[in-house]
């Protein structure tokens, strides 16, 4: 017959300690994945450079950071686009620009700045024309010509396409040669160029994974973009490029496919 041991049961102690460690592990993982304050650089939320306390609002229901993509069409326009880049840099925000090929000449430095500051650059045709019903030759004169110009300026060749007016057909899907990006929030900022209305409309429809369509050729839209960023930062959103948005959600972007959002 065994005598009852007077010293602690080390196996039980170790097991209990193991259980404690196991219970704590998710919290260590959470601490390691805390995003930095939004104002530093939103894209850092996607890297391991985190630090600082998380905002209680910064995560959606399933614990993921709330991500949103600002996209700007019809530029570059030196005056407004440069002002926009200044304000986005101050706020640590990355955006996506769908550019008009015919406006690249004499704006190469603006396009290079977008690229160097971590924004994403895409194609919005050469002349801002409808791409539906075009032959391959005419399509290439709009899309591939712009792609080549961007490639010459930036030295890479991985540009997304946004067709003007968001009008799509099978020919566009066949000829695109890259993913096609539409949007899920459109405040029609070109319509009245009313800063307050645009801000209200975007902020009230914002949700995790959304793609916002705006135009960086109007000063009112640039002002609206800053207010939208400031308001949505307060709600815990992080602004990322389209590519970062889909990568963060493990949604691969494929050539000839159309994407309007990355809602969870
Ligand atoms: Ni456009």
Explain the overall architecture.
With about 260 residues, this protein is an alpha/beta fold. It has nine helices and eight strands. The strands form two sheets. Strands 1, 2, 3, 4, 6 and 7 form a six-stranded parallel sheet that branches. Helix 2 packs parallel to helix 8 (about 220-235) and helix 7 packs parallel to helix 8 (about 220-235). The longest helix is centred in the N-terminal third of the chain and has 23 residues, at about 10-30. The radius of gyration is 23 Å and the shape is globular. Bound molecules: nickel (II) ion. The site of nickel (II) ion has 5 residues, from strand 1.
What is the succession of H and E elements? HEHEHEHEHEHHEHEHE
Number of strands: 8
Tell me the major beta sheet: 6 strands, parallel
This entry's quaternary arrangement is single chain
Shape: globular
Alpha-beta content class? alpha/beta
List each distinct ligand once.
nickel (II) ion
What do the pLDDT scores average to? 86
Radius of gyration: 23 Å
């Amino acid at each position: 017959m065994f005598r009852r041991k007077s010293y602690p049961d080390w196996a039980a102690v170790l097991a209990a300690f193991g259980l404690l460690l196991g219970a704590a592990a998710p919290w260590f993982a959470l601490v390691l994945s805390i995003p930095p304050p939004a104002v530093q650089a939103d894209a850092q939320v996607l890297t391991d450079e985190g630090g600082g306390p998380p905002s209680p609002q910064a995560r959606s229901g399933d614990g993921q950071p709330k991500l949103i993509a600002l996209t700007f069409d019809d530029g570059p326009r030196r005056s407004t686009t440069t002002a926009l880049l200044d304000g986005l840099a101050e706020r640590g925000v990355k955006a996506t620009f769908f550019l008009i090929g015919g406006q690249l000449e004499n704006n190469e430095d603006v396009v290079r700045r977008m690229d160097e500051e971590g924004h994403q650059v895409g194609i919005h045709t050469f002349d801002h024309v409808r791409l539906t019903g075009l032959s391959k030759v005419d399509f290439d004169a709009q899309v591939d010509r712009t792609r080549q110009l961007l490639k010459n300026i930036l030295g890479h060749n991985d540009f997304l396409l946004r067709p003007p007016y968001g009008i799509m057909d099978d020919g566009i899907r066949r000829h695109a040669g890259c993913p096609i990006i539409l949007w899920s929030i459109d405040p029609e900022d070109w319509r009245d160029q009313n800063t307050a209305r645009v801000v209200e409309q975007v902020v009230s429809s914002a949700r995790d994974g959304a793609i916002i369509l705006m135009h960086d050729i109007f000063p009112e839209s640039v002002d609206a973009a800053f207010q939208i960023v400031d308001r949505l930062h307060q709600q815990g959103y992080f602004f990322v490029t389209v590519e970062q948005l889909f990568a963060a959600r493990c949604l691969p972007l494929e050539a000839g496919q159309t994407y309007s959002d990355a809602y969870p």
